[in-house]
Design a protein that fits this description.
about 300 residues; mainly alpha; DNA polymerase, domain 1; hpI Integrase, Chain A; 2 domains; three-stranded antiparallel β-sheet; 12 helices
């Protein structure tokens, strides 16, 4: 499922050998290009598209996916450079007659996406609730929320509506109801699981009121948290962490996607975790086995 057909793989291996030996690219750049191009070729392969039939429009569709999934413009620019260089190499080596990437342009500054946290900034932000002095009453709840935001990339509206019956912590999943009540299962890493369990056993029971229903995260009045409360909470901890970027709960969604993709995760797997509706035809969108999704999360998420 995550393996390239031999024609694609042979072309990729030839190109990587070329940039390492003849172009003298650094090991880091070569690895980044390898990850970017494998993801690109898997995208084309899932459409049952031979190399000779890739067009400018198909490449634009792939780049559109990278934008919509939340990858930073600087990373998209590198993806484009890799794709252009790869296709130019194929033409020079006479493996292709024309270069479909010739007129693909780098992203303009105006298209830069909202702030994305570095791994170091993310760790600082996740640690902020425990750094409060004196510790606040809702530290465990807030810590569980931040960990869950980063572990899953869920939207704010999705997080506040999570109910306890949607948790399958022993299996490592949470059921999310997205836009249009579309349901998906998203993996949760061990750190988020442990903090959710601790919140449930040490704090939630004391917040429960008659009208609490089964919502996981409750406020002082025993009802589900509002989106604004979540926004305010994230900004408070961002300030405590000394992060000067414009941070909101949605920042975690972009950060989640970027960290996975930068680590080499498959585009389709990340799309499924985000509940993103593909901009390409539904026939291209292939179903991904749950065990594969969970393995991608465990392998590529920094807190998996």
């Amino acid at each position: 499922m995550n393996t390239l057909h031999h024609n694609y793989q042979n072309a990729l291996d030839s190109y990587l050998n070329y940039i390492l030996i003849e172009r003298n690219f650094s090991a880091n750049t070569s690895e980044s290009y390898s990850n970017d191009l494998k993801r690109y070729l898997l995208f084309m392969q899932q459409s049952s598209r031979p190399m000779t039939e890739i067009t400018n429009r198909h490449i634009e569709e792939f780049i559109g996916e990278l934008y919509s999934i939340g990858l930073e413009a600087s990373s998209i620019a590198r993806n484009i450079s890799a794709i252009r260089s790869f296709h130019k190499f194929l033409v020079v080596e006479r493996l292709l007659e024309t270069n479909p990437a010739e007129n693909i342009h780098q992203p303009k500054k105006a298209r830069y996406l909202p702030s994305v946290l570095t791994v170091d900034e993310t760790i600082r932000l996740l640690a902020a609730p425990q750094a409060m002095n004196p510790p606040g009453k809702y530290v465990i709840r807030d810590k569980a929320i931040l960990e869950l935001l980063y572990a899953t990339g869920v939207r704010v509206s999705e997080l506040v509506n999570i109910q306890q019956q949607n948790l399958f912590l022993d299996a490592g999943f949470v059921r999310i109801f997205g836009k249009g009540s579309k349901e998906r299962l998203v993996p949760i890493g061990g750190s988020a699981i442990s903090w959710i369990k601790r919140y449930q056993t040490e704090l939630r029971f004391s917040l429960v009121q008659r009208n609490s229903d089964d919502y996981l995260f409750l406020n002082a009045r025993g009802i589900k948290l509002s989106r604004m409360a979540l926004f305010t909470m994230v900004q408070k901890y961002a300030g405590m962490s000394g992060i000067e970027k414009n941070i909101s709960p949605h920042t975690f969604r972009h950060t989640f996607a970027t960290h996975l993709l930068e680590g080499g995760a498959d585009l389709r797997a990340v799309q499924e975790m985000l509940g993103h509706r593909s901009i390409v035809t539904t026939q291209i969108y292939t179903h991904i086995d749950r065990s594969f999704i969970k393995e991608v999360h465990k392998t590529f998420h920094p807190r998996g």
